Amino acid sequence: MWATFRHELAHMRGQILGWGISLGLLGAYFTSVFNSFQAQMEQLKQVMGYFPPELFEFFGIDLSTLTPFRMLDIKFFSLMPIILGIFAMLACSNLLAGDEETGLLDLVLAHPVSRRSLFFGKFLAFVVAFVAILLIMWAAISLFMDRAVLQVTPIQMLWPMVSLFATVLIFGALALLLSMVLPSRRMAWSVSLFVAIASFFVDGMAEIEPSLQRVSELLPYAYYQGAQAAFGLNVGWVVGLVVPAVVFVLLAWWRFERRDIRVAGEGGWRLPLPARLRPARRRPAEARPVA
Amino acid sequence: MAEQPAIAIHGLTKSYGKVRALRGIDLEVQRGEIFGFLGPNGAGKTTTIRCALDLIRPDGGSIRVLGIDPQANPVAVKARTGYLPGELQLDDNLTGEAQLHFLNELRGRKADWKYVRELAERLDLDLKRPIRNLSKGNKIKVGVIQALMHRPELLMLDEPTFGLDPLMQQEVLRLLVEAKRNGATVFFSSHILSEVQAVAERVGIIRRGKIVEVAGVQTLINRSMRRVRIQFRHDVDPTALTQVPGVSLLKRDNGRAVTLQVEGEMDALLKAVAAYPVVDFETERPSLEEIFLAYYEDERNSHKTEE
Fold first, then answer.
1. Which residues pair with B82 in a beta bridge?
2. Is B193 helix (H, G, I), strand (E, B) or coil?
3. Hey, are the CB atoms on A107 and B85 less than 8 Å from each other?
4. CA nearest to B235, candidates B277, B274, B271
5. A107, B146: Cβ pair inside 8 Å?
6. B105 CB within 8 Å of a chain A CB
């Protein structure tokens, strides 16, 4: 397992640096901007008052209690599950199905490595890479934040990262499961991205339309605290997100243990289409020229 | 207790949806032999090999590799096997050496690195070059090295020389013969029948998911029909020759030369020919390639009949 883990983590070095530094810089930028907002907060609220109230309801904003820290939450943390979710969904759908589609998995699995150790070695590497990205983001935000303005400590800023980890983990785990079930990696990541975006919008719309509340409660985004976790992490919500993620990962492993490894290329649904809609069949195989 | 075969496959079936890839394969490969696995594209060669390595799961039948059930204990089978996939894919971001180091890590560092360097030298491969810069042939060389580097008991190679230049093809074949000499069993599929004929002791021919022939290469060639070309001193009516059991006329060039096809022993034909003044008598065995193509022709004909 450790050989696979080290190899996969080494593979993810570029992603850790790319995503970590980019999002760290973005976090640092927003933090610096909102550090200076304290003085202009009242003017800002007045300007924002001209916008439709539904817009603020969508993001759960109460103008009367708006602070620079809340602005950081809205502008940066609220979008992070989608942005980091893209990384997680791409990485997880690629963990095994990517190698399978290129044909590399065939070679690796022909070595004395069990499917279990390959699966968990790769997944553990993803988790470590993801945590590393979160730590880079946290370090950048902590370095640039003005504690007096934002009224939080760097230690407190760790809790939003935990909430973000749990939320994004579930999207990654879903992509991993789908990559083991659906015929292609692309399909797996597209479906999981749809779920992530739908979750974001349903959660926002539920603030405006209460009838959507029940649907929203079934989706992961409803249990994401964002930066508000700095003032008290909801451990129940974190566990509520991590447990289904673990279930998805275990189901993906169960499926991986039992399925055929494709030679290379994407699979198909083999839908029972009418003859005229079926793709043209290849002619029966013929021998290659012999030497 | 007698030593179990290196590979023992009985009644192996595998379908992909409605496509029946394997229709009851029965095959035994003895320890220490070089076994060539022949068949046209899509006949089921790769599917059989991948079932034996637990990369895909058969629908029915049984497989034992080195006496072990690969589904029950795949790691034990793979620890003692070297495999070269037909569709070899390597990690483009690594150098040849780094790729081999990673695969060696998966093997618990069982490879003899001195042997790896020796193999690279013999195959004229620069291990320091990134894989993305290697030609297809050089990538196959990396694949051959990874299959051999831990000196496995069993080599399963899916078209090991496909994409190599003729010199390197010969070198790879020499490596297989050396592996056999050191006690390994070699099971390989190939389309290059001359090379199978050169190194394999036995061959199995697979056709549409069924084994249609397993025999020694020489037995197969000896058993098959011969072509005989006879040049007479003067015109001869070939009817007297074609009346000999097992003899048929293939070609009559002129009154003095005939080409016959002979099935079975030559004795009766020689006695019939002895009655005429003979200038030249040539006999020719078909190559493995011709035998294989004859099987393949049979398949095409049966396919047409089914249609």
1. B155
2. helix
3. yes
4. B277
5. yes
6. yes
pTM passes above 0.90: no
DSSP secondary structure of B20-82: EEEEEEEEEE-TT-EEEEE--TTSSHHHHHHHHTTSS--SEEEEEETTB-TTT-HHHHHHTEE
Best mutation target, A105, A263, A273, to test chain B (most B CBs within 10 A): A263
For A103, the closest of B85, B103, B293 (CB atoms) is B85
Q: Token match 């059991």: residue?
A: B245
Own/partner long-range contacts of B300-305 (Cβ < 8 Å, ≥24 apart): B303/A284
Reported ipTM: the value is 0.80
Task: Measure the CA–CA gap between B50 and B234, rounded to whole angstroms.
Answer: 60
Residues from chain A contacting residue B106 (CB–CB below 8 Å): 3-4, 108, 111-113
CA distance A226 to B172: 60
**Given pLDDT bands bounded at 50, 70 and 90, which one contains residue A273?**
low
Q: Are B197 and B217 in contact (CB under 8 A)?
A: yes
Q: What per-residue confidence (pLDDT) applies to A132?
A: 96
Distance in angstroms (rounded) separating the CA atoms of residues B242 and B272? 10
Inform me whether the C-beta atom of residue A288 falls under 8 Å from chain B C-beta atoms. Answer: yes
Q: B161 near B86, Cβ under 8 Å?
A: no
- C-alpha distance from B168 to closest chain A C-alpha (Å): 15
The 3-state DSSP class for residue B62 equals strand
pLDDT tens sequence across A49-96:
788 877 777 777 776 667 777 888 888 898 999 999 999 999 999 999
pLDDT of residue B223: 67
d(CA A99, CA A94): 7
Contact B50, B12 (CB under 8 A): no
